[in-house]
Design a protein that fits this description.
390 residues, six-stranded mixed beta sheet, eight-stranded mixed beta sheet, HSDR_N, 14 strands, Archaeosine Trna-guanine Transglycosylase, Chain: A, domain 4, Type I restriction enzyme HsdR N-terminal domain-containing protein
Amino acid sequence: MNRDAVREYIEQSESVLDSSPQMDEANTKAAVLRDFLDLLDWQIPQDTQLEYSVEAFGNTYKVDYALILEGTPVAFLEAKGADTALTDDHEEQLSSYMTNKNVTYGILTNGKQYRFFQRRVDASNVDVQRVGDVALKDLPNRLPVLKAYQKDAIESGESSKILGRINELRKARRTLEADKDGLAVELSNTLADEVSESISSLAETQAKELIDRLVEDIESEIDADGGGSGSSTDGPTGSGNDGSIEPRQNHVVGKIRRNELEGDGEAKVAVFPTKESGLPFLKENNAWAFVRIGSEFEYVAMYVTGDVRQVKYFAKVKDVVPPSEADLERPPLSYVERNEISEDKMVVRFEPESLYELEDPVPYETKYPQSLQYTTLGALRSAETTDDML
């Protein structure tokens, strides 16, 4: 599965839903959800049984789709019409079906919203937990969850590993966010004991930044597309069917060699990753977004992912502001694939005439910024590869 296939499904589904927003269940199944099953490699009737009988609440009910391997249902998909909002009662209904038939995986959807479930057994306790709640347009950002419900992943046992890791990462993220201050103090105390008490205050600040980066990296992995080095980024991805836009203007002043970059060698440089589709935002706004900022920095360097894999752009920071105050060339949401931007995401604006393309970009070796990382201007100037500066 790849983003292009998911985006094609979204494009087709949105067209259908826009033309018939009040479709009933039967039409939603025919016009939207059969294609969703195809996306997950489940075929009707080879390995998908319609109207599968199951006992629940003392009665016999029909599950819309039972996904079958070797004659046994391994997942249920319960469908509702596009005209019906998903509710807790619908979740309880699907949960009962899964529990009664010992089915591990479940999906509840009305074509617009997709809720994913997993049945877990812990000693004598059986619990069906929601593992994802995703709007149609956000499906490309949740590829790991989608992959877990593909036929091959369930058949091979990979689904359990994928969802287990997602669950553990979410727990880790919650702990890091809830206990950030305490963890930073503990880490700084350890460094002070092992190294020197004189670094205690500096270590605490750096520890908080480390925790922020860990949270960012966890979010990147949960939402990642599994594409290998340089596949994750938290910034703009452009708009349009192919995820790209044509920049309305270009604030890149020109090219510059790294040894010509002026400034204190100890000055802090924030290194952000971006896909090539994010470069139009950079060029037309003389800025970068939408990112969480943990500390102040004087410069920005942009690492371009995908086939490029180089630190390729550089700029001097003017200020950091919320998207609503950034005076962007287009509405903020037009640059992102999601339908909202978190309140803590900011825009880093550059000084006028300070955005350059590096004539001698820093090539990837083994390290690359999956999310915001920091280096120094001196390290950027002298680096032979990304390993020398990250």
